[in-house]
Amino acid sequence: MWTPQRLAADAIHQVLRGRSLTPTLEGVLARAPRLSASERGALWDISHGSLRHLGLLQALLARMLRKPLAEPWLEALLVAALYRMEFTQAPAYATVSQAVDACAAAGFPWAKGMVNAVLRRFQRERPALLALARSEPRGRFSYPDWWIERVRCDYPDTWQALLEAGNRRPGMALRINLRRTPPQAYLAALEAAGLTGRREGDAGVILERVLPVARLPGFAEGLVSVQDIGAQLAAPLLDLAAGQRVLDAFAAPGGKAAHILESADVELLALDSDADRLGRVGDNLQRLGLRAALRCADACALSQWWDGRGFDRVLADVPCTASGVVRRHPDIKWLRREHDLAALAAQAGGLLDALWRVVVPGGKLLLATCSVFRPENRAQVDAFVGRHTDARLVPLPGREAPEVQLLPDESHDGFYYALFERLG
Question: Taking CA 360 as the corner, what is the angle to CA 271 and CA 308, rounded to the nearest 5 degrees?
């Protein structure tokens, strides 16, 4: 019996074993192709919501179980059921019944009584159990302890609000293709389709709820793309002009590359080291009616891809912890480890050094991350300028400062941008 709750338990179990949620859900859905649209939506919500609030849900279990469960899948099942009971309007009796049935269906009939007892106890003692679970930082904020401490160190005045913002469910952000349609025309198309959206910036729209892209008016025709409002800053901050030679050094899945081409008539090279992900860049550009040169190569290995001609603009959306996008990808909180921060910052520094070699004198490189951690952002900038005497920070277009740190809020995820100019 493939209920969304049982399938979500499978997905959560895989994430807790170290696998990313998106490919995990793709595999789960492949095993249950007959799920209805509403069941798929429930699976998505239970999986993401459970991981968004995992610290609290695990803290609840710790106070209701005498000892840790020997079978990790049962923990995932209970986490999914507790999420439904606390954060959704699903009837408690149905949640409990489905969890008990899932035990037998998954090969754990001996656990039916335990699962029933734990969930019934939560029903009876909910306020007291929640108070106990939230008495520790991990249970209150639903992040690993090291993550909480890192944010508290970087943002001593606003750390709690930042953590809480990362746990809010995001809307669906769109970028209108201004080459194809004006914003007001697309907003009218949304209204005609019964969808509500609010305008953000020059080309952005935020829908109140997430829905399949097939339901977006004009998506197949290239009128619109899905892209976070914060990510939509990259193209304008590159200071583009017609005729420039531009490199998008980490282009997959193609949102920023497409936005660059929608913004100016430039010669774009889209580079990525993953052939499958680079294929998605090509698919996105084709849907939007845009063209770029695509190369599959390691950005550090210049001999693999660089022809010796310099670039006027380079977008360096370097690898990072992705700590700014946990609203949409809550599994990141539980997959990252504290030592990843230093390792990724060092990797990004090496990539920036390599890419600086392809920037022409007078050209600009835009550092971009989807992180809120300062070792990946301002500290990276200071170290880069210290290594390169021909690099200077310059004001971002339309802004007085040479950098901007976006923190997650109701409009966007967390992003960082800094702009360097190469001295002649």
Answer: 60
419 vs 354: CA distance, rounded Å? 16
For the chain, give the number of residues.
424
Radius of gyration from C-alpha coordinates of the chain? 23
In contact, 206 and 409? CB cutoff 8 Å:
no
Question: Alpha-carbon distance 350 to 352, whole Å?
Answer: 5
Q: What homologous superfamily does CATH list for 231-422?
A: Vaccinia Virus protein VP39 (3.40.50.150)
Helix orientation angle between 72-87 and 112-133, rounded to the nearest 10 degrees? 60
* Contact present, 311 and 358 (Cβ < 8 Å): yes
The neighbour count for residue 20, using CB atoms within 10 Å, is: 13
CATH class, range 4-142: mainly alpha
User: Alpha-carbon distance 74 to 113, whole Å?
Assistant: 12
**pLDDT tier at 419 (50, 70, 90 boundaries)?**
very high
Cα 308 from chain centre: 34
For residue 79, give both structure tokens: 């986490």
Annotated active-site positions, please?
370
Side chain identity, residue 294: L
The strand order across the sheet containing 172-176 reads: 197-200, 204-207, 172-176, 224-226
What pLDDT sits at residue 424?
84
pLDDT digits (tens, 9 = 90+) for 290-326: 999 999 999 999 999 999 999 999 999 999 999 999 9
pLDDT of residue 316: 98
The pair of three-digit structure tokens given for residue 357, joined into one six-digit string: 């070699």
How does DSSP classify residue 198?
A: E
pTM for this entry? 0.94
Q: Please determine, for residue 377, whether its predicted confidence score (pLDDT) is greater than 70.
A: yes
Locate 71 and state its tokens: 């079978």
* Strand bridging mode 204-207 / 172-176: antiparallel
Environment class of 196 (CB within 10 Å of its CB; exposed 0-12, middle 13-18, buried 19+): exposed
Domain ranges of the chain: 4-142, 231-422
Q: Which amino acid is at 217?
A: P
What pLDDT, on a 0 to 100 scale, did the predictor assign at position 1?
A: 57
Q: Are 6 and 98 in contact (CB under 8 A)?
A: yes
- Report whether pLDDT(367) > 70: yes
Is the peptide bond prior to 395 cis by the omega test (within 30 degrees of 0)?
no
* Amino acid identity for residue 64 in this structure: M
Sign of the CA dihedral running 90, 94, 99, 102: negative
pLDDT in tens, 165-187: 999 999 999 999 999 999 999 99
